[in-house]
Specification:
three-stranded mixed beta sheet; AcylCo_DH-like_C; oxidoreductase
């Protein structure tokens, strides 16, 4: 693992920082440090415009191959980009699912027609994506999906029926990648397909889920005879599990650096508040801040280690990647608790509704979900034990 940067890399850093500082002005000035967890509802239209601004400057999809519209940046340069993005206070990305998940997955597994159809819209910042994985009965157990896809010979299309839940930013998305069962008699990870679905169609209904923050980043999505073009299944019917697992490799990959960008900004806000209100004089609070700082650095170095060992363009990572979700989710939940303690007991009381939460209060409430979505902590421990350490699988208990 490389922990230092070359002179060429540092020149790249200067270029990134210069562009961000020059462009986070005017209409985009108010976006600084906005759009993180619990704050995702702020300035949606302006943040969409920011995506297009990034694209105009050539700063979307920086790690993608040049032939697909990216900059073909090295891992080191991608680290630098996210570091400078954080340092400049640039807003949370509304295009991160397309850039970090959909695009790399199509580059690895998609047809040439699919790449030609979908990648340009992601690079330009004009088309947004959401993820159709979780269902009411298939959260961490993704292989239990019940959404079905049948091929209609007369219409020449796949027809989808089912329900997805906890779909982030579905209400803003133009497209959704969906795991659905192509073989109605199949079980577990067999008989699945990976579909690319247009959201603006009669067969798709989006229902917001109001969170305890009072906002609705998450949604339920219902498919009722929703249509998908025959050529918009990635791979063959039955390949869905392979493609889905490849995508999760990208989710644990370079996109994690953008996530850490938000974490650093939140920690900086906690530290600044502790200095302002006197909480930093409490030795226990100081110790907890120091621990949070050290663990965030560990998170960064572990990310660089696992990315340095990335084994291929299909998203596969070293076994060290298995610990990442468990580590960051637990850390982030702890940061929310630290933020509340720094604010003091009065932050738990608001006069009356509708409640106006500050950013740290919203962050605290939102991060309660971190140890659940994307794989619960309990499931992550099982994955580490079974796939990473080669331990026996957890016994299955069946009802009598």
């Amino acid at each position: 693992m490389k922990l230092s940067f070359s002179a060429q890399d540092e020149q790249f850093r200067t270029e990134v920082a210069g562009w961000l500082n020059a462009n986070l002005t005017g209409e985009f000035e108010k976006l600084k440090f906005r759009g993180g967890p619990g704050d995702e509802h702020m300035y949606p239209e302006e943040r969409k415009a920011w995506e297009k601004k990034l694209a105009e400057g050539g700063w979307t999809c920086v790690g993608w191959p040049a032939e697909h519209g990216g900059r073909a940046c090295s891992i080191e340069q991608q680290v630098i980009f996210f570091e400078e993005y954080a340092r400049a206070g640039a807003p949370g990305r509304v295009g991160h699912i397309g850039e970090g998940l959909t695009g790399p997955t199509l580059i690895a597994f998609g047809s040439e027609a699919q790449k030609e159809k979908y990648l340009p819209g992601i690079v330009s910042g004009e088309e947004l994506w959401c993820q159709g994985y979780s269902e009411p009965g298939a959260g961490s157990d993704l292989a239990n999906v019940k959404t079905k896809a049948r091929f209609d010979e007369d219409r020449g299309q796949w027809i989808l029926n089912g329900q997805k839940v906890w779909t982030s930013l579905a209400h803003e998305a133009d497209y959704c990648f969906v795991i659905a069962r192509t073989d109605p008699d199949s079980v577990a990870h067999k008989g699945l397909g990976f579909f690319l679905i247009k959201m603006d169609q009669p067969g798709v209904e989006i229902r917001p889920i109001e969170q305890i923050t009072g906002t609705s980043e998450f949604n339920e999505v219902f498919f009722d005879e929703a249509e998908c073009d025959a050529q918009d299944i990635v791979g063959a019917p039955g390949d869905g599990w392979k493609v889905a697992m490849g995508l999760l490799g990208f989710e644990r990959g370079v996109s994690t650096l953008g996530q850490q960008m938000q974490f650093q900004n939140e920690l900086d806000e906690v530290v600044a508040l502790a200095k302002t209100n006197g909480a930093a004089r409490d030795p226990i609070i100081r110790q907890r801040i120091a621990r949070a700082h050290a663990e965030l650095k560990i998170m960064r170095y572990n990310s660089m280690r696992m990315l340095s060992g990335q084994s291929g363009s299909d998203g596969s990572l070293q076994k060290e990647a298995l610990i990442y979700k468990l580590f960051w989710a637990t850390w982030h939940r702890g940061l929310g608790e630290l933020a509340m303690d720094v604010m003091g007991p009065e932050c738990e009381i608001l006069d009356d509704g509708p409640y106006e939460l500050n950013r740290l209060q919203s962050m605290y409430l939102f991060v309660r979900s971190d140890t659940i979505y994307g794989g619960t902590n309990q499931i992550q421990r099982n994955i580490i034990a079974e796939r990473g350490l080669g331990m026996p699988k957890e016994p299955r208990v069946t009802a009598k």
